[in-house]
Write a structure and sequence with these properties.
Elements lengths: L2 E6 L4 H12 L6 E7 L3 E7 L15 E7 L14 E3 L2 E6 L5 H10 L9 H12 L2 H5 L6 E6 L4 E6 L4 E5 L2 E5 L2 H4 L5 E4 L5 E3 L10 E2 L15 H7 L1 H10 L4 H6 L4 E5 L1 H12 L5 E4 L21 E8 L5 H11 L7 E9 L5 H5 L1 E4 L12 H13 L8 H10 L1 H6 L5 E6 L3 H16 L4 E4 L15 E7 L5 H13 L3 E6 L2 H6 L2 E4 L8 H19 L18
Helix pairs in contact: 2-3, 7-12, 7-13, 9-12, 9-15, 12-18, 13-18, 15-18
Bound molecules: 6-O-phosphono-alpha-D-glucopyranose (G6P).
């Protein structure tokens, strides 16, 4: 999603910012821009990659601000890209501004008639009119990260969004992505919320701490996509998680009434948490406003007022999850409150990581937009929260699937796809359909196997592929029934199974190593990732950066 990268310094300023923006590209964007200043400002903007930005014509540049945009208000276009410039003052902004229509009216009445479709333009014009970032920020109630540059000065601020300053060469870097900033410097300062900072050497408020970078799994660059690279890392990551001791948060979360909250794949991981008996309730983060938390309060008569929550978020920056934290923190009905908020995140320094009792996902950076290794790492951590026995051979079993991935590559998947599963495999069916939608752009569906006969069977004919998630667990017999129903409608069956009867029914089988019922979800997750990957590859899709999606969704 949107990203900010600025450089207050003279050494190759424009190229330094362009390189920085390219490093945040993995978060996904549709347009970008850079303003530089040598006393006069010049701004260049383009669609797509920062590689498309023209070199500015001014020389002796002293500083600059850059941005990658993911459209929310206003279409994808060069005029809508940041920086927005008024009176030689440029502004870049992450977040959305709910009251922008009101500001727009005011600004127009002041003679700013060049305001376009975006909320940021109103903010930029207002800041220019007031001549002060701190003054204009008083009018913004939403979360934000912002950088504002006049001809000779740079100011930055943030509120409940990420923005960091780092000491770098002759000056300072400002970046909304800590992992990117750490590639340049480990002398980092995190901004306080709502405070406006002037970036210059004489500002005594800029105090840097040496940041200890956590050890990350080394990237293996032999694959042509990050997604495949990340799929292949899974045995090592799961082994690493299983071999670590349970942290105090793993232990304390697993005791008492709990609810799990997440978005996208992280929400689906949460759904499996219910089968691991670590959660009584699982809520989709974007739905939290419409839920009455009171309904979760009474399930334990001995602790009627206590509720623990676990936020699952790979990035730790998902706006819906942050909103959910605000919502449940404020919940206090009849004396009851959410007492402890935990999180499971790949970034302990993220907004969610810092505001909760955070468990480190230990999956290493994930660059492909669709989650793979972080999803299975989330499942492994939920296992660590539970008291269930773990299969120490699970990493080897994942490796067997990966070693036989050419079989999955060879299976034809039609353009009409349904994933079906029962029990804990149903969330994997949802995850399989999500993976397929994200990277193939096909309208893949997912149903609990027993639901086929209540509607979806009407769709089926020989043009459909039905993926049956069928480990030999308690639900296996019911999965066989569903597979018979599918076969009778001439749809093609891809079975992920170890069961002989299911293999007989299937058109194509992907052999599933045997493990516990719940850990089978990790194995079937790997298979559905591979099915989606190879289908997307055959369709020639941009696997790591699917259209319209962002890695980290920082707006609600
Ligand atoms: C985006 C990504 C999904 C991810 C979801 C939640 O939509 O494209 O792959 O599952 O955000 O992200 P989080 O960082 O909160 O786990």
């Amino acid at each position: 999603m949107c990203g900010i990268f600025c450089y207050y310094g003279k050494e190759n300023t424009f190229e330094t910012i362009r390189e920085g923006l390219k490093k945040i590209e993995y978060r996904c964007h549709d347009s970008c821009g850079i303003s530089v200043s040598n006393g006069n400002t010049e701004t260049v903007r383009s669609l797509n990659s920062p590689d498309n930005l023209k070199l500015p014509s001014i020389s002796s540049i002293q500083m600059g601000i850059g941005h990658t945009r993911w459209a929310t208000h206003g279409e994808v276009s060069i005029p809508n890209a940041h920086p927005h410039v008024y009176n030689h003052q440029s502004l870049v902004h992450n977040g959305t501004i709910a009251n922008h229509n009101k500001i727009k009216e005011e600004i127009k009445s002041l003679g700013f008639d060049t305001i376009g479709d975006t909320d940021t333009e109103c903010f930029a014009a207002l800041t220019s009119h007031l001549g002060s970032l701190s003054e204009s920020l008083k009018r913004i109630t939403d979360r934000y990260a912002v950088a504002w540059m006049t001809r000779s000065k740079m100011f930055i601020s943030k509120d409940r969004m990420s923005l960091y300053v780092g000491q770098y060469k002759d000056g300072f870097l400002v970046c909304s992505d800590l992992s990117v900033l750490l590639e340049y410097t480990n002398k980092i300062m995190e901004l306080k919320d709502k405070k406006c900072y002037k970036i210059c050497w004489t500002n005594k408020e800029l105090v840097f701490k040496t940041h200890k970078q956590s050890k990350q799994i080394e990237e293996n660059n032999t694959e042509d996509t990050f997604m495949m690279q990340e799929i292949l890392e899974q045995p090592e990551i799961i082994e690493g998680i299983y071999n670590k001791k349970r942290t105090r948060y793993h232990q304390s979360f697993s005791f008492g009434p709990t609810c799990i909250i997440g978005s996208g794949s992280s929400y689906y991981a949460g759904l499996i948490g219910k089968f691991m008996e670590v959660a009584n309730h699982v809520i989709c983060a974007s739905e939290i406003d419409s839920y009455d938390l009171n309904q979760y309060r009474t399930f334990d008569p001995y602790e009627p007022n206590v509720l623990k929550a676990l936020i699952i978020s790979q990035s730790g920056e998902t706006a819906d999850c942050i909103r959910a934290i605000e919502s449940i923190s404020n919940y206090n009905h009849g004396g009851g409150a959410v007492e402890e908020i935990y999180s499971l995140t790949n970034n302990l320094q993220s907004t969610i990581g810092k505001s909760t009792m955070a468990i480190d996902l230990l999956a290493g950076p994930e660059k492909s937009v669709c989650s793979t290794k972080t999803f299975t790492a989330q499942l492994a951590h939920l296992m660590m929260c539970s008291y269930m026995d773990k299969d120490k051979y699970l990493p080897e079993k994942i490796q067997i699937i990966l070693d036989n991935r050419n079989i999955i590559e060879g299976i034809p998947v039609s353009n009409n796809i349904i994933f079906i599963g029962k029990g804990s495999q149903y969330p994997i069916a949802l995850e399989g359909a999500l993976k397929m939608q994200e990277i193939t752009y096909l309208p893949a569906l997912a149903f609990p196997a027993g639901e086929l006969k209540h509607g979806p069977l009407a769709l089926l004919d020989e043009s459909w592929t039905v993926v049956c998630l069928a480990p030999e667990d308690d639900n296996y017999k019911k999965m066989l029934l569903a597979a018979h129903e599918v076969k009778a409608r001439h749809a093609k069956i891809i079975a992920i199974t170890s069961g002989e009867e299911m293999k007989q029914l299937a058109d194509y089988t992907i052999e599933l190593p045997k493990t516990s019922e719940i850990e089978s979800t990790i194995l079937t997750a790997v298979v559905v990732q591979l099915l989606a990957y190879y289908k997307a590859k055959k369709l020639g899709r941009n696997i790591d950066r699917p259209r319209n999606l962002a890695k980290s969704v920082t707006v609600e």
